[in-house]
Structure formats: structure tokens, C-alpha cells
Amino acid sequence: MEPPHAPALRRLLPPLLLLLLPLPPRARAKYVRGNLSSKEDWMFLTRFCFLSDYGRLDFRFRYPEAKCCQNILLYFDDPSQWPAVYKAGDKDCLAKESVIRPENNQVINLTTQYAWSGCQVVLEEGTRYLSCSSGRSFRSVRERWWYIAVSKCGGDGLQLEYEMVLTNGKSFWTRHFSADEFGILETDVTFLLIFILIFFLSCYFGYLLKGRQLLHTTYKMFMAAAGVEVLSLLFFCIYWGQYATDGIGNESLKILAKLLFSSSFLIFLLMLILLGKGFTVTRGRISHSGSVKLSVYMTLYTLTHVVLLIYEAKFFDPGQVLYTYESPAGYGLIGLQVAAYVWFCYAVLVSLRHFPEKQPFYVPFFAAYTLWFFAVPVMALIANFGIPKWAREKIVNGIQLGIHLYAHGVFLIMTRPSAANKNFPYHVRTSQIASAGAPGPGGSESADKAFPQHVYGNVTFISDSVPNFTELFSIPPPASSPLPRAAPDSGLPLFRDLRPPGPLRDL
To answer: How high is the pLDDT of residue 505?
Structure first.
């Protein structure tokens, strides 16, 4: 028999499978192929960061002999080379070729006269083609970005079929990776294992909190953020593993991993703002105006993240080494992050003013996440202006994952449900949330009113988890007719006969 949710799964599978379909290889791939036809006389093909001693380019070029003769130009990242010619409107084709140093073997003439090009004439369907297959090794004093272009100055345009394999050594961990990507796969695998541990610890702590009726919405959001982070890193590892194998990878997996990475960040950010406002710590619900503000803000943040991903995929120039935040959308995200921090500060200060007994939680909470809020803008500035472009991607990847690990690790430690934890934020049971937020007299909503001031519920962790044996031997009095108690020092007995007076009987 088919399970009841099978039709829903069938409806969801097509769009999910569509996400996993491979996209056409982009120019930045380490295995590059394409068919170029243009009226221009100089065109950029691809770029790669080669190691100082192990860089290798293997190529196959093919074009009609009538379009002879075309050149492959190899520029490196020196200011007098690629930056001097790319997007230089005042330079024509000859001027762009003039910066090439012939003694460095930076020109590959695609002709039979140039032996190192491996060109030969082939006849196909009555048309003569120049087919060139060979390779070139790269050696330099340090890792460098190399840019590959094709030119035919003074001709009638370019026509070229090309296939290139760009490699760094023969190791699985380096072969297809650009030098600026070294270590990304190993780093992602390491952080994946760490975040799996964090996720399972959060689930275990959540189980303990549920048993004490302290598993609040904010902690569930933390568990969700950790789980989404694990999925994101899993997809990143699959993408980089496939990329290490074939040099192409599945770009859809990488996009999906980035979306999950951003989703984890947004869930965690929303959780921090809610905790700053006291949600599940000092109040049962957020006011209507506060909910509207949060909805608008998170919608703007989500849209900006989506725009940033689209901008990076569609508008980043492959001829330039750019970082994610080098765009209007990136600067917009930094602005939203600063605005979130101002809001966070205001919310925490208001919560502390009304509930000073929560200082053991809010003071370290505020200090720890002040660092986190400023980590992203500082990282963006350092990446844009302080990290060399040939090392940027691998360094930024490690910093980003370290920032996420710091945020999740700090929260996991602060909310651990042990009796020795003095920072534990919750004291109101989940079963008390509804009564605390029930409509007040006259039908007015008191959902945003604060919880009763109380010490931390975590100090009674041991008594919550150990049976109270004194209760096993006591019988509570009926609620309707409680037994009267003797006044202090009255001399009256604690228990007395409440039967009406009557004649004495000999029993």
C-alpha cells in the first residue's frame, strides 16, 4: 500500500531533480571547452591560478585554415600584464599583444611553423582545418593567476574550437584545483564532522530540555540552523569531491549548498534577535508590531542574499578575481548586518533594564555575539583589501566556517542543560507559555507581556531529574476542605476530632 504522503513526494521530486541537473561548464572550470565565433580580434578565454612549479596546461585548438593565423596569449597577474590590458579601452589588439614577453614563451602561434603548438592541417568535408594539440608548463617565483586569451590582430574576426585541461600536479587534492582553492575540500570535510557533532549534541540537549518542558522555539531554531549547516557542508563536500575527480563538478550542487549556507545564517540571526528581545526568556510572544518589523527585515535580508547569489553568478566578470562582497548586493548585506546589530543592542538593553536578574545570561550573550556581528563586515573588508587574490578563496572559506562554528559553539555551551551552567536562559516551562500569553481581561491580548520574574530554572536540574521520595509518603489534603492548622505557639494539637459532640461510649 502506498504511504499517504507519496503523492506529495511525487510533486516535490521534479523540482528537486531539476536543481541537481548539471549546468553548462563555466569559464572558470579547470576543464574548459567551447566554440568561439566573434568579430572581435582579441578575446578572453579562461583563468587559472597555477603553482610555482607544477602548473600544466594541455590544450586542443581547431579552426579553419582560412582564418589563419591565430595566437594563444598567456598573461600573468603582474600589473604590467593582465591588469594593463583587460578592460583597457585605449589599447587595441597590437597594444595588448605588446605587453607579452616573448622570452617567457607567453605566445602560442597556432600555425604549422611553430613546432611547440603541435598544429597540423586536416581535411574535413572539403574544408581545411588547423588542429593543434600540445601543452605548456608554468613556473614562477610564487603562485600566480594566469589568464588565457586568443588574438588575431588586423584580421576578420576569430573562430576557434577549444578544449583545455588546467592542472596543478597529479594529486587528487590538487590536480584540478586552482592554487587559491587548495585545502577547501579538506577544510569542508573537517568542519562537516565538527558540525555533525554539534548537531547531535544539540539534539541530545534538546531531548533533555524536552523532558523538563524547556525545549523552547528559540532552541529549536538553533537545532534547525545547525542541521541546515550540516546539509550545506555535505553538499559542498560532494561538489568539491566531484570537482576533484573531473575538474567540472555540478554547479547546481554548489548553488544549493550556498543557499543552505545562507539559510542557516538567516535562521541563526533571527534566533539571536528574538533572544535579544527576550522571546522565550522573559516573554512568551512578540508583539504584533515587533513581528511585522522582524518579517520585513528578514524578507529584505533574504532578498538581498538571493540578489547577491544571482549577481555573483550572472554579472561577476570571469576575467577578474572577485570576492562575493565586491558588489552592490554585498555592501547591502554588510549594511543590513550593522542594522541588525543596532537592533540587537537595543533589544538586549531593554530586556536587561526590565529583567536585571537575567544578567548571567545576557551579559556574556551580548559580549560573545557582538564579536560575531562584526566578524562578517570585518572579514569582507579584509578579503577585499588585505588578502592576496591568489590566496583569497581558501582563506575566506576557512574564516567563514570558523565564524559559523564560533556562533554555534558559544550558543551550545551557554545553553547546555547542566546544573553547573549559570548562563542557562530558560526558566518557564513550555506548558506555561500558553497561559502566559492567553487573552487578558476584556479580551485584550497579553501575549507580549513578560513572564514572572524568576531565578533560572536550571538550578533545579538535579531535582528535576531525581525522584522526590518525600512526596511518595505524603497525602495532600482535599482542595475543598483543607485540614485546619494550629497557630504557632497556640498549644493546640495539630490534629483534632471534627465529629460533633455526643455521649461518651465505652468501646
So the answer is: 40
The pLDDT of residue 296 is: 92
- The residue type found at 277 is K
Using alpha carbons, select from 365, 347, 355, 368 the residue that is nearest to residue 277: 347
Residue the block writes with cell 521530486: 13
Return the number of other C-beta atoms located less than 10 Å from residue 311's C-beta.
15
CA atoms lying within 13 Å on the CB side of residue 498: 7
Greatest alpha-carbon span in the chain: 138
From residue 475, give the alpha-carbon distance in Å to each of 471, 478, 483. Answer: 8, 9, 12
Q: Extract the C-alpha cell encoding 23.
A: 549546468
CATH class of residue range 183-414: mainly alpha
CATH number for 31-168 (one of 1.10.10, 1.10.1060, 2.115.10, 2.60.120): it is: 2.60.120
Give per-residue burial for 314-338: e unless 16+ CB within 10 Å, then b.
eebeebbbbbbbebebbebbeebbe
Do 176 and 30 meet the contact criterion of CB atoms below 8 Å apart?
yes
| pLDDT for the residue numbered 469 | 34
Q: CA–CA separation, 227 vs 230, rounded Å?
A: 5
Residue 268's contacts (CB-CB under 8 Å, 6 or more residues apart) are: 221, 222, 225, 407, 408
Distance from first CA to last CA of the chain, Å, rounded?
75
Strands of the 55-64 sheet, one edge to the other: 31-38, 158-168, 55-64, 127-138, 119-124
Give the per-residue pLDDT at 433: 60
Q: Give the DSSP H/E element, type plus range, for residue 16.
A: helix 6-19
Alpha helix segments (H runs only) across 20-129? 82-85, 93-98
* 76 contacts: CB under 8 Å, gap ≥ 6: 82, 140, 144, 145, 146, 147
Blockwise average pLDDT, block size 10, the chain, 507 residues: 40 35 41 90 92 88 90 92 89 91 86 89 89 89 90 88 92 90 94 97 94 91 97 96 90 92 94 93 86 91 85 82 77 85 93 90 95 89 84 90 96 88 83 52 46 51 39 43 43 40 40
| Domain locations along the chain | 31-168, 183-414
Judging by beta carbons within 10 Å of its beta carbon (0-12, 13-18, 19+), is residue 166 exposed, middle or buried? buried
What's the Cα-to-Cα distance from 363 to each of 146, 350, 352, 356, rounded to whole Å?
50, 13, 9, 10
Three cell numbers, residue 334: 554588510
Give CA–CA dist 108/92, Å, rounded.
19
